[in-house]
């Protein structure tokens, strides 16, 4: 081998090393921040979920017993946790379709029907999304009051004796679903509106010439083209609703008779009692449920090719 | 390829090491009752950092000025923290060894903080007999006292005197039967919609149920105060009595989510309820002029004896305080009888020191004096770290008892079962 032939690759090698080192140095601050503030909490909470960590172990986080999956099996035999899971399912199964229907209806109205004051309506529908839940809760508690609330006063005009919305275990969840749908449909509406406006007008025109009526055009042109938008809104709304917490937290504290206790709310309570291991395990159960539900939605609503 | 396997081996080894390092010390927990070290003589010096919550946190600096005037070398730095954030802030501070020198602490947190080994035992110089017995008990965890009861509150029965006269009760009843027939008469003769406003289960309802149990001689702990004790005839009788108000239609089982106690009391819709001293100013403010003479307070009606719930806040010194002696001097200052009266005037917090109640400021108000009398027999819940969790299950079982008419005996059995599986946490 000649000397020159040997020198060239080694110089190239050195340059690559230097480059690699520079890249690492540049990436280091991010990596450190990511490791300490994103990855470490995940690892620690995973660790907690398989131990019997309680609040009194905070000073010595490693001096705890390793108990395997006991926290998880305990959750599935915990009556209250199962109640909260049922409540969450109720909230998601009724709340998500309702919110999406409202969002789509509002988006269609803004796209086609309402031409005057369109931006005023858009702002109006979107306002609940950006209003603080604490303020909203105060107003809604007044609206839903048993005797003098606006809901029951209006129902009274029609001779209907309205229920004790938040005080009756059968009506508390529908009340919260109503509140959540009202509060969240604005987000879906904005996204649907963008989706609707990207449906090419020429397709509608061609179909109309072929004699398709409005309903048929909506069913066969608008909906298929909205599929990606629908998927996005379904997934984000479901993820939000599976973790629902604020509504019962500010309105009912999970009552009456645990009828509005959600999984997140129960997890929060367990953290409050200092049962960190158990609460961490429950958070991971919620995480797995969300992952499964999202995967199913992706399968059902994916583009058919 | 070789590098990946090296990484795998390294990871596995670290995990194994980390896991084998786990496990509790078997000796932990069983601490013997002990007494605090004594405090040095002389005046306080240096900076004393103090945390206090809510309105107390805002008003404490003014009181601390008195202490600074008497101890020229000392400076008290009060940090006001909101109640909502307080518990988290304390546990974080304890974990990180960043506690203040002294702090106001909610009575139900004492067990937890003492269990974390964060509190300094009370020095012998502080005389426990000067405090109300029930209030002093809130500072005791496993036989050792940590800190002092700073201010107290207890629950009495509020009633409308004018409506009570209409109902045929010129003097308030003293026993269970009397209370119930009075509430019933309020409905039948005085036009009240509900006889008495009782909380139908839910968060904090134990504070209205337990006074009945204590008035029936219930003890909430057994085995030398080492275990919970809910499933007893005394508690059961109280739960049944409490339930009967709902089954007889004297109390509203579907009370609104936002309580309307004050307006209902003023309008006469619900002319009786059980609550603490803060309700006096609340109903007088709403009732307007002259309402002061239209209502009264009576001690908890007795089955065996009259006994209510004692709450309030304690004042503690943290173990890793760098200025321990001066911090205790500040706590001692707070427990001084005259300072307690001054504090009452500034904050309307009721004194925990018995002799402070002889002061004309507290004696002149007849209703307030009733609270003072009740405090002598008022009881505190056990100071187990798991109390909040156990009592939450009691609250939710009581909700079933009052709202759906569930069997109180079965409910208490459930509570006892859960209490035993949760344990005392000590």
Number of DSSP helical runs of chain A: 12
Low-confidence stretches of chain A: none
Overall mean confidence score, pLDDT of chain A: 86
Proportion in β-strands of chain A:
under 5%
Structural class of chain B: alpha+beta
Topology of chain B as a string of helices (H) and strands (E): HEHEHEHHEEEEHHHEEHHEHEEHHEHHHH
What does this molecule look like?
With 305 residues, chain A is mainly α. Chain A has two domains: 3-49; 76-301, MetI-like fold, CATH 1.10.3720. Helices cover 75% and strands 0% of the residues of chain A. Chain A is built from twelve helices and no strands. Chain A has helices spanning 3-49, 70-77, 79-113, 118-130, 133-143, 150-157, 172-197, 201-209, 214-242, 246-251, 263-272, 276-301. Chain A is flat, with a radius of gyration of 27 Å. The termini of chain A are far apart. With 426 residues, chain B is an alpha+beta fold. Chain B folds into two domains: 46-153 and 310-375, 3-Layer(aba) Sandwich (D-Maltodextrin-Binding Protein, domain 2), CATH 3.40.190; 156-306 and 382-422, Periplasmic binding protein-like II (D-Maltodextrin-Binding Protein, domain 2), CATH 3.40.190. Chain B has helices at residues 2-20, 54-70, 83-95, 110-115, 133-137, 161-166, 176-188, 206-215, 233-247, 261-267, 278-287, 324-334, 337-347, 360-363, 366-375, 387-403, 408-422, and strands spanning 46-53, 74-81, 102-106, 140-141, 144-145, 148-154, 156-160, 221-222, 227-228, 272-275, 295-298, 310-317, 350-351. A six-stranded mixed β-sheet of chain B has the order 2-1-3-12-6-13. Chain B has a three-stranded antiparallel β-sheet with strand order 10-7-11. A two-stranded antiparallel sheet of chain B has the order 4-5. The longest helix of chain B is centred in the N-terminal third of the chain and has 19 residues, at 2-20. Chain B is globular, with a radius of gyration of 24 Å. The chains are: A mainly alpha (305), B alpha+beta (426). Chain A binds chain B through residues 51, 54-56, 58-59, 62-66, 141, 145-146, 164, 166-169, 251-253, 255-258, 269, 272-275, and chain B through 18-19, 21-25, 87, 91, 94-95, 112, 115-117, 202-203, 254-258, 385-386, 388-389, 392, 396, 399-400, 403-404, 425.
């Amino acid at each position: 081998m000649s000397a020159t032939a040997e020198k060239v690759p080694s110089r190239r090698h050195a340059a690559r090393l230097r480059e690699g080192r520079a890249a690492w140095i540049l990436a280091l601050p991010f990596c450190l921040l990511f490791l300490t503030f994103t990855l470490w909490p995940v690892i620690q909470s995973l660790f907690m979920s398989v131990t019997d960590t309680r609040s009194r172990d905070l000073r010595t986080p490693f001096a705890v017993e390793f108990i395997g999956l006991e926290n998880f099996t305990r959750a599935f035999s915990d009556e209250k946790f199962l109640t909260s899971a049922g409540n969450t399912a109720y909230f998601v199964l009724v709340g998500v379709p309702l919110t999406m229907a409202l969002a789509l209806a509002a988006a269609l109205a803004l796209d086609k029907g309402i031409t005057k004051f369109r931006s005023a309506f858009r702002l109006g529908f979107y306002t609940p999304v950006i209003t603080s839940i604490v303020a909203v809760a105060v107003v809604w508690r007044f609206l839903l009051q048993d005797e003098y609330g606006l809901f029951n006063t209006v129902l009274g005009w029609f001779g209907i004796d309205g229920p004790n919305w938040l005080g009756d275990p059968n009506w508390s969840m529908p009340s919260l679903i109503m509140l959540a749908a009202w509060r969240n449909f604005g987000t879906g509406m904005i996204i649907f509106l963008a989706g609707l406006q990207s449906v090419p007008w020429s397709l509608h025109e061609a179909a109309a010439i072929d004699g398709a009526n409005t309903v048929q055009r909506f069913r066969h042109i608008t909906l298929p083209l909205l599929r990606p938008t629908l998927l996005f809104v379904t997934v984000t709304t479901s993820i939000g609703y599976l973790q629902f917490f604020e509504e019962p937290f500010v309105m009912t504290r999970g009552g009456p008779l645990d009828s509005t206790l959600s999984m997140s709310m129960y997890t929060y309570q367990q953290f409050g009692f200092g049962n960190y291991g158990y609460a961490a395990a429950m958070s991971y159960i919620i995480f797995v449920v969300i992952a499964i539900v999202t995967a199913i939605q992706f399968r059902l609503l994916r583009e058919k090719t | 390829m070789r590098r990946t396997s090296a990484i795998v081996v390294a990871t596995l080894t670290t995990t194994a090491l980390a896991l084998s390092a786990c496990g509790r010390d078997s000796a932990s927990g069983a601490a013997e009752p002990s007494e605090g070290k004594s405090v040095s003589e002389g005046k306080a010096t240096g900076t004393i950092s103090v945390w206090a919550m809510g309105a107390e946190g805002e008003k404490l600096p003014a009181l601390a000025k008195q202490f600074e005037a008497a101890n020229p070398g000392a400076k008290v730095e009060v940090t006001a923290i909101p109640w909502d954030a307080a518990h988290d802030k304390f546990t974080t501070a304890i974990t990180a060894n960043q506690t203040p020198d002294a702090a106001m602490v909610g009575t139900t947190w004492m067990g937890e903080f003492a269990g974390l080994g964060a509190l300094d035992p009370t020095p012998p110089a502080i005389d426990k007999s000067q405090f109300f017995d029930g209030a002093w008990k809130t500072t005791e965890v496993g036989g050792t006292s940590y800190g002092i009861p700073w201010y107290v509150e207890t629950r009495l029965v509020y009633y409308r005197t004018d409506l009570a006269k209409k109902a045929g009760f010129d003097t308030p009843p003293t026993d269970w039967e009397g209370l119930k027939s009075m509430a019933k008469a309020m409905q039948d003769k005085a036009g009240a919609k509900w006889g008495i406003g009782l909380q139908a289960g839910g968060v904090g309802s134990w504070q209205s149920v337990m006074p009945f149990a204590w008035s029936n001689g219930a003890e909430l702990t057994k085995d030398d105060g080492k275990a919970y004790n809910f499933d007893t005839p005394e508690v059961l009788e109280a739960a049944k009595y409490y339930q009967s108000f709902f089954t007889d239609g004297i109390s509203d089982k579907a009370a609104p989510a936002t309580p309307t106690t004050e307006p209902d009391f003023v309008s006469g819709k619900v002319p009786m309820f059980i609550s603490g001293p803060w309700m006096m100013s609340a109903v007088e403010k709403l009732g307007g002029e002259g309402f002061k003479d239209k209502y009264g307070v009576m001690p908890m009606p007795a089955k065996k004896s009259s006994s209510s719930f004692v709450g309030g806040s304690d004042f503690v010194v943290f173990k890793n305080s760098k200025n321990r002696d001066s911090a205790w001097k500040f706590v001692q200052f707070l427990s001084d009888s005259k300072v307690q009266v001054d504090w009452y005037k500034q904050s309307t917090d009721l004194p925990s020191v018995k002799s402070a109640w002889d002061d004309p400021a507290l004696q002149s108000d007849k209703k307030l004096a009733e609270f003072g009398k009740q405090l002598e027999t008022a009881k505190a819940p056990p100071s187990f770290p798991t109390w909040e969790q156990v009592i939450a299950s009691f609250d939710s079982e009581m909700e079933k008892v009052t709202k759906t008419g569930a069997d109180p005996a079965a409910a208490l059995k459930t509570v006892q079962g859960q209490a035993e599986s949760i344990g005392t946490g000590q």
